[in-house]
Predict the structure.
Amino acid sequence: MRYPEFRRLVVATFLITSAMLVQEVVLGYEVYLITRDPLALGFVGLAEAVPFIALALFGGHLADRRERIGLMRASLSVILASSAVLAVLFAPAVRAHLSSAAQLGAIYGSVFLLGLARGIYSPAASSLKAFLVPRELYPNSSAWVSAFWQAGAVLGPVAAGFAYAALTLSGTLAAAVACFVLALWLQAGIARRPVTAPPASESLWTSLREGLAYVYRSKIILYAITLDMASVFFGGVVAILPVFAEDILAVGPQGLGMLRAAPSVGALLTMFVCTFHPPTAHAWRNLLWAVAGFGVATLVFAVSRSFLVSVAMLFLVGAFDSVSVIIRQTLLQALPPDHLRGRVVAVNSIFVTTSNELGAFESGLAARLLGTVPSVLFGGAMTLAIAATLWRRGRELFAVRL
């Protein structure tokens, strides 16, 4: 935190995360109020995941070939414009003339543009971190970046629930737009970095394959991102929290905000501890314990009918997940060479998006087919099974020290 440009990056990360989650929570809640269908919530995740996955590898290629901060500003401008249009469309005077189908189309279209922009933004932002602090500070900087991200993930959902009740949907979306504007201003104070010139004969497809091949060869990176993808894909419950808030726990939008924020509160506190005691010395062991704890907390959340117990389990879900995030981010900063880092981060971003956004679609689909509670029980059990499988396959990784 002694480095001014790093401070600008993490504060911008906080603002962008807060604004995106404010939008995610209120739009998800609005979709459920319009449709009363958990599968419709799954389609929100799908609308963001498909364009992101389609573009992320190319975004990693650009991050290794173009100036990163310029890519970040351009893609954030697209996010800002899309959010501003959505805020205008849901102003009461305009919304009164829109059908339910048109409102859903506007939401899905905005989320689709967000996915496209994130496909460029995420690899550029993640690979830029390594150039803002000295190499010996990578574990510490990973913990701080993750902590600021989680702080935004705490404030965003809580603020969304109360802002929705006080300002209505359009006012809440306008507040998110203001956060994006401030983040763009902060990024303007980060200097451009020179980019390593690529081989003159290297084609786009050769470049993309090089990033994929590096991840495949690095067993600890491959297994770490596979663990994260599988656990969140099957065990994630965030997308269907509106169902729990409305139909199972009956706590309304304010309760939804608290449920949505609970994982991030757990993650934030855990990451603060990890800034002083990084979990990377026994990386593989700690990663497996964290994923197993994630699965157990998910199972207890599924059967809980107490709001306080549900919040506590989501708190633990976030705490365990944060350990996985810090280990994985340190691996991605420390191991790949500079000329490959953007593409390796892009591969990780695809795994993360598959687990989060496609996981949201899986959650909605499973809730429709199996029922809400059985689908969460299934996800928690799958998480434990995958952790046990990779424990057997990756025993040699217990010797890895970062």
